[in-house]
């Protein structure tokens, strides 16, 4: 319990540090665009300026959500091969060695193929910026 609280506090501190670094980086970029841009960048300066201003507003909210989304997607990506590959193929392998109940081979092949199809769908479903 204490480790979970310490890691939560550490995560909050790291989040605060990352947000402040991103904020300062965007402010520095805005300053450089406004003062040091030459004539070739002049056409794109307003576009870069608006991107940095928009990025400043979205930085704090995005950094808090992304690790949770990635963690959920990683856990599901860990469970899909377990249930689609390792358990059915292991059951097929060990039942042939020990003479147990044979599993239908066609179902095992279909489960292995479903794993390849489900991996990208999990990422698309759980990570909002990919939707």
From TrEMBL:
Keyword Membrane part of the UniProt annotation: yes
Spans through the membrane: 14-34, 46-66, 78-103
UniProt key word Coiled coil: no
Keywords: Membrane, Transmembrane, Transmembrane helix
One Pfam family it belongs to: 7TM_GPCR_Str
Name by which UniProt lists this protein: 7TM GPCR serpentine receptor class x (Srx) domain-containing protein
Organism expressing this protein natively: Mesorhabditis spiculigera
Phylogenetic placement of the source organism: Eukaryota, Metazoa, Ecdysozoa, Nematoda, Chromadorea
